[in-house]
Design brief:
This protein is α/β, with parallel strands linked by helices. The chain has 12 helices and 16 strands. A 9-stranded mixed beta sheet has the order 10-9-8-7-13-6-14-16-15. The chain binds ligand AOF and zinc ion (ZN). Keywords: Hydrolase, Metal-binding, Multifunctional enzyme, NADP, Oxidoreductase, Riboflavin biosynthesis, Zinc.
Length: 362
């Protein structure tokens, strides 16, 4: 096995933490001695041991003189756990092969430097691109202090998200809908506008046993959310934040009794200031948000440059209808040149539906 093979295995380990570690990164580690894997681990859950320490905990023999492959630079700070650099030095590991650099200012470059100072051979940027792909969310969140936002919608081949009567169940097939359930469990928050709640009365949860549901965030400038909505009724079960621009004390109190968190955010033209909101959500530790509409909120988020990725499900059917809703509405641009620009990054099929993934170019 080569260095590449070992790092690939560390990457596979790291992926197992997906959905459970945020707002921390997904990290994997592998310890190799005399051509044998003697330890492996990954960051399993937020607040628990880091990948390096889990790999060390799995050792059944001395790691003296061994190589550790880590997908992210080992930390050197006292956070929820003591520094991983210390654990590596205690084990007398001789060589550390690092994939991604850690943009966290508490670590950034210092982890590798400490190891070198103690005579450890350190190789950085090894398969960096592959390792970086594990953590687009963490990198965005830690450097911009904003959540990584993924806008997702399902539409017909003629670009409609509902028929002219507003009916939207269902556009895509069962495979696509199952995939969306998986996606929901990957992000820390899920956000929709109030109109979506009024129209569809959604639950916005994950119905896969053993998987985590995201924090539900409802953008509701005028605090119109009905107390009888499924969202309010299930707020004790699934964390729910209702964001408003004007605080109506009585309604706020009623919502809070039901377990809803009400977050008042300064407004622009009577609407929630989305940039401020995103910063506030990041301060609450929310590193990622799946944005599920509607069209008005989608457009505002895109225009503010707050969306990093778009996932479009396209069903092989056509609704027609001039008034049938489309995924992105709002004011719209005047000229093609003013478009929100994106880059196609992935394409696959889910049953009969097509899935297009784009990175936003901001
Ligand atoms: C992880 N898991 O496997 C590694 C991390 O809050 P703490 O104490 O868990 O520290 C989190 C920071 O540690 C994180 O921002 C990153 O810079 C570094 N490395 N974090 O959660 C890991 N290796
Ligand atoms: Zn660490």
């Amino acid at each position: 096995m080569t260095d590449q093979d070992y790092m690939k295995r560390a990457i596979e380990m790291a992926k197992k933490g997906g959905g459970w570690v945020h707002p921390n990164p997904q990290v994997g580690a592998l310890i190799v001695k005399d051509g044998r894997i003697i330890g492996e681990g990954y960051h399993v859950k937020y607040g628990q041991l880091h990948a390096e320490r889990n790999a060390i905990a799995s050792l059944r023999e001395s790691a003296e003189g061994a190589t550790i492959y880590v997908t992210l630079e080992p930390c050197c700070h006292y956070g929820k756990t003591p520094p991983c650099t210390e654990a590596i030095l205690e084990q007398r590991i001789a060589r550390v092969v690092i994939g991604s650099r850690d943009p966290n200012p508490k670590v950034s470059g210092k982890g590798a430097a400490i190891l070198r100072e103690h005579g450890v051979r350190v190789e950085e940027d090894f398969m960096r691109e592959e390792c970086d792909q594990l953590n687009p969310v963490f990198f965005h969140y830690i450097t911009k202090k904003l959540p990584y936002v993924v806008m997702k919608y399902a539409m017909t081949a003629d670009g409609k998200i509902a028929t002219k009567t507003g009916a939207s169940k269902w556009i895509t097939g069962p495979e696509a809908r199952a995939e969306v359930q998986q996606i929901r469990s990957r992000y820390m928050g899920i956000m929709v506008g109030i109109r979506t709640v009024l129209q569809d009365d959604p639950m916005l949860n994950v119905r896969i046993p053993g998987e985590k549901s995201p924090i539900r965030i409802i953008c509701d400038s005028g605090l119109r959310i009905p107390l009888e909505s499924q969202i309010c009724q299930s707020a004790r079960q699934y964390r729910t934040i209702v964001v408003c621009a004007e605080e109506r004390q009585e309604k706020k109190a009623q919502l809070e009794v039901m377990g809803v968190e009400v977050l008042a955010v300064p407004s622009v033209d009577g609407k929630v200031d989305l940039v401020r909101l995103m910063h506030l959500l990041a301060e609450k530790g929310i590193d990622s948000i799946l944005l599920e509409g509607g069209g008005t909120l989608n457009y505002s988020m895109l225009r503010e440059g707050l969306v990093q990725k778009v996932i479009a499900y396209v069903a092989p059917k056509i609704f027609g209808g001039e008034t049938a809703r489309t995924p992105v509405a709002g004011a719209g641009v005047q000229l093609p040149d003013e478009a929100v620009k994106m880059k196609l990054s992935e394409i696959h099929k889910a049953g009969e539906d097509l899935v297009l993934e784009y990175e936003c170019c901001i």
